[in-house]
Hints:
Blueprint: E1 5-10, E2 14-20, E3 24-29, H1 32-39, E4 47-51, H2 58-67, E5 71-74, H3 76-85, H4 93-106, H5 117-163
Amino acid sequence: MPNAVIGCDLSRAVIDICELPSGWIGQIANTPDAIAAWLDTLDHDTRLVFEATSGCDGDLIAALAIRSHPFSCVNPRQAREFARATGTLAKTDRVDARVLAQMGTALDLPATIPLSPARSQLADFLRRRRQLVDMRKAEKLHRHSAGQLDADLETASESRSTAFPIHP
């Protein structure tokens, strides 16, 4: 079990931090330089716990992987359930950081093993491919619906022109 656990609540701009058992609360910018400077001050035995947040955790995970620093990336739903179980109903960034630190202290969370850079890039390509396939499928449906609408308008136009002939 690590000596200290730090809960991190990530957003695009900042990372809210709560360290247990000291109870220290702070905030750093969510930039590669700020993260690197902060991680350099931590003991290697300190465990970081944060929620899997798409897009906001990339810089932190990359910096942790470079340093081989232990961390646990937890499911946001499980973190919310833990907060509810401990009676914490408020939902602010600082409270979330504290709850994540408490979760890391109370539970024996498995260490997350980061993907290699090649696998991470492959995952990004696959995610983008899925997005493009979904967009293509949606466009086909739109085109089909528009084609059906065009046919309906043409039919309506023909029936109107036979009902109300236009004579020059």
